[in-house]
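User: Can you fold this complex?
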Amino acid sequence: MPVKIASEWLNSCSGCEIAILNLGETLLDLLPELTFVHIPVLMDHKYYGQLGDKDEINIPEAKVGLLSGGIRNEEHLEVASEMRKKCKVLIALGTCATHGGIPAMINSYSNEELFDRYYSTEGTDSGGQVPCNGVPKLLDRCYAVDEHIKVDIYLPGCPPHPDHIGAALFALLKDKNPEFPFRSVCDTCPAIRKGKGDVNEIKRFVTTPDFDPEEPLDKMQCLLEQGYLCSGPVTRAGCAGNNGDAPRCISARVPCRGCYGPVKQNGNQMLDMLNALVSNGIDISQLPERESLLRFSGAHNKLVCKKGSF
Amino acid sequence: MGKIINIQPLSRIEGHASIKIQLDDNGNVDKAVTHFNSIRGFEKYVQGKPAEEVTRIVTRICGICPWHHHLASTKAVDACFGADIAPAGHLLRECMQNMAHINDKILHFYFFAAPDFIMGPDADYSVRNVIGIAKAVPDLAKQVFRMRQLGQMMMEKFAGKVIHPVAAVPGGFAKPMSESQRQSLLNDTEKLLEFAEFTIKYAKENIFPEYLEEITSLGTINTGFIGTVDDQGSLNFYKGKIRLMKPDGSYTDFDDSRYLDYIGEHVADVSYGKYPYAKSWDEGFSMDLDMPRGIYRSNCLARINVCDNISTPIAGAELETFRKNFGRPAQHTLLYHFARLIELVYACEKTKELLCDKNIAGKKTRLDVTPKAGRGVGHVEAPRGTLIHDYTTDDKGMIVSANMIVGTTHNLAPISMSVEQSARLLIKDGFVDEGILNKVEMAVRAYDP
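Assistant: Here's the predicted assembly.
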């Protein structure tokens, strides 16, 4: 019997779903063993019956549930609760689901501040009221999925590497629990580290690091040691996939910004990064701002609403 | 009042929307309202962030078209900082921009749209999807999966990340392309071009003739159009003037920095997304089907309506034939699918043209930039339409204010109108079935929102 899968997206961008499709022919090969019972990006199963005449939301039962995106409004909460009720194993897919992701940057602001800005940009007609007719009401902030429902498997990444999505599906097909690396991005990065250098100030990424494009990454000195902010030390490994490739941003010769969330599920990327910088003798008062260090993991009360900046 | 039909979630689209159809006592459509249910507030939370970081934050507006946000944003930051761009950096950005269009169009046509045509609009929902196609036409599906994957991996191997890219930077591009990478990408682009030609031929032989009735009726509305053209008036995805065309075909071209003079945004209580409209027409905003005011459309059909020609040979010839058959501007909503395939061919041809230019493999791809105060508007043609990022920075190069008009946003009012049109066309005297409701959604899907 094929394994039933249900998939939903909440406060998200669909990048996780595109990452599923980036399994490519592997996905095609898996299809005989899987039955998708609900996945809005690909199929037309509806919440309120196929004729839209039922009153209550219904998602079919499934062995595996994939849930991407954080929980930001009442509809997300309803869909997430229904997924929890109907799925035996629930996977929080992607960093929005595990840690809030980029959209949790809104947690530094109130809903009123959001509406005030969005509905009064320079080109917006004045006099419009905040939409409230048939659109889901916002919650007070953006939540990671596990702040509202129980999560069985955390699969972070923005987006998660298709290797890991594939590995999770393969493991669950065989009734096993998938295992993912609990290391840092630096542990998978081939760049040369020489130890504590003479860097005492962090540069913004507006200049070109020192590297020879003809040479592979293992001939380039660590971008952090070159003085560029890089969140590799405080970020969970995984973006490189399972084939020994380099971290993906580093392979573009661009520093990591932390898209896999903290190394440990409940870590704090901002505090950990500031600690790492201070312990290397770097003057953190020179950073242009700090909130961005939590740009992927602002749920779980890490980023909170306040007036004025940090 | 009669019953309410609640189509939710809209599916095989990117994002969160729903349709509520209110029937009257006789079972005819009283109202059909489309709700756009998502608001995240990028305009708010990029404030106070270093501008060069924002180019890799706004990618998360859309996981299907992150490259286009990345590039429009990078262009806006270039302008804020008054940055000079390394010439090879420009070529690399333009190449990535076109490659991303290829993958997007393969995704939309085969994974989102084609099930309605290949499996049929009335087929059961459990098979009316790409998995159904994989079972019904396995050879085609294998080729589709392989070609889409090829396109994605070409970008990932060269630029590090294909979903939520990071390689464009203010001042250029973060890494050069080696000569061997150029050759390899060129070879792979040839394969994609061949597949694009196959796809448009397949659609012209097997799909469009069979669904001519739907194509010329479903979701049809009468609107203006928006898109980008170069100095010769040719279609361009990466740079040029924005052209705003009225329903009668007359048009105005303007520089993106002046977009606020031409485009207004209407706030409606049924949608978190705002409805942009043509402020410069001085007729206000109305979604009345018989007398729309200020309504224009974006995305592929809009682009091929506003451009005078397409500069690449195969897509250029396709456009000429298309115009002979459907006129300019073509208004039938389902023609978006046809236009998308013409653009698929164009994107492949344009990518090939860019990769044939050896300057793209120039060593210097990035110039240093200095954060400073400024205002910058950057725009590109995202698959779903003219994508505008508008930033103001302070003297440290931090974002003071940001405004974004996203491709699909231009189409929110037109989508709502096409939904209303198709619901009124199809639902009569209380008769509703799954096929009818799916056809209402097909009017949405054409826009690839």
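Chain B has a mean pLDDT of 98. Chain B touches chain A through 108 residues (CB under 8 Å).
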